[in-house]
Model the fold of this input.
Amino acid sequence: KNEVEQSPQNLTAQEGEFITINCSYSVGISALHWLQQHPGGGIVSLFMLSSGKKKHGRLIATINIQEKHSSLHITASHPRDSAVYICAVSRARDSNYQLIWGAGTKLIIKP
Amino acid sequence: ETGVTQSPTHLIKTRGQQVTLRCSSQSGHNTVSWYQQALGQGPQFIFQYYREEENGRGNFPPRFSGLQFPNYSSELNVNALELDDSALYLCASSRTRNSPLHFGNGTRLTVT
Done:
């Protein structure tokens, strides 16, 4: 069993829909990261969180430490949101670089 | 802040050769890490550098080595290239070891 599990693996939705991507992990963590990777390869860090909820524009990330679960939400989705969304965690004893990565969720938003 | 830049963007090498990939971090970012991402897979941690010293290493052989310089740039060197080294190589930097990460766009290495 992977230490970081994401669901769904693939998600196709229509423009404007509310999107939720889930991440569960099985290790003690110091932080959880949500990252976005476009087809060109570059990775953008969206959120780093260790508790509660963070919001940036149309993106919202939540984490429940007790349940070891996090969600990434996209409101009013747009085709430019199409990308792979990756959940990664840094274990409690490690620094932020030694991340354990989820397999990613490939999101396609159709116009 | 300027972004994290990597060079070159693409590179083709022959098996057995050596390669140097470069990363220019944001000013003030004392920590840098390198990742290898094979096609269709998640990134694998290679190593991290903090203030010019290696400060953590993933499951990669010694032919993967690195350097970090005082001007916030760094290098990843790979000797004796193998076909399986073909991948996207990403560097990421941050202000401290526990700050948000800033990634470059990567160098796509093809070994033939």
Q: What stands out?
A: The interface with chain A takes residues 31, 33, 37, 42-43, 45, 48, 55-56, 58, 88, 90, 92, 94, 97-106, 108 of chain B (CB under 8 Å). Residues 42 and 105 of chain B are 15 Å apart (CA to CA). The first strand of chain B starts at residue 5 and ends at 7.
